[in-house]
Specification:
By secondary structure, the protein is mainly α. Helix content is 67%, strand content 0%.
Length: 203
């Protein structure tokens, strides 16, 4: 989005609170003479949880390559792990490698169609690639799960404005204002919406 578009300073990190990995368990060290191939299910779970925590901590610090390596190690053991798939998607999105990020979000959604983190990330990638119709389709799936998320609602309204569906855009902006009376991003969106309408009427 351009510098004048709405919600440019918001980041999906606010959606990822509590999303640092699988629930914590005490990590068990392999017994003497036991190698990685002989891990018990509990030990394997603990190792995956630890890698997941490390990956998200590294991502938070901006160490994208090492974060990706952690998540890849998880996928080698558990190819359907939603934390790792979303984590790699988030890592590539952070580096603005949106096409690569979509691949991992889509893989996650194949196994977990209602994973809201994957839906958010995928829609945001489409938005940044200016594929607004695709972004809208994914945002609408997200809103089925959570129709009170102001960040998502604002971005959906922005996307509808981009594709010139001004009536739908206005309706969503109004619904956001009911929840957030003086939301700055929504107010900017309204300004751009009515500026666009005024310009359209002059043509």
């Amino acid at each position: 989005m351009s510098g004048t578009d709405t919600d440019t300073s918001r980041d999906s990190s606010q959606l990822h609170s509590g999303h640092s990995g699988n629930e914590e368990r005490e990590e068990k060290l392999p017994a003497d003479g036991q190698n990685d191939e002989e891990l018990s299910p509990d030990e394997e779970y603990a190792e995956i949880a630890n890698l997941s925590r490390q990956g998200y901590q590294l991502l938070k610090k901006g160490n994208v390559p090492d974060a990706i390596e952690c998540f890849r190690e998880i996928i080698e053991v558990d190819p359907e792990n939603n934390y790792a798939l979303v984590g790699i998607g988030d890592a590539y999105r952070k580096k603005r490698r949106y096409q690569e990020a979509t691949h991992y979000y889509q893989r996650c959604l194949q196994f977990y169609p209602e994973n809201n983190y994957a839906l958010f990330g995928l829609a945001d990638c489409y938005r940044n690639m200016k594929q607004f119709h695709r972004a809208i389709e994914v945002w609408e799936k997200y809103l089925v799960l959570d129709d009170r998320n102001v960040t998502v609602l604002t971005r959906v309204a922005d996307a509808y404005r981009k594709v010139k569906n001004l009536e739908r855009s206005e309706a969503i902006y109004l619904s956001v204002l009911e929840m957030e009376k003086e939301g700055p991003y929504t107010l900017i969106g309204f300004f751009l919406l009515y500026t666009f309408e005024a310009a359209d009427e002059r043509i």
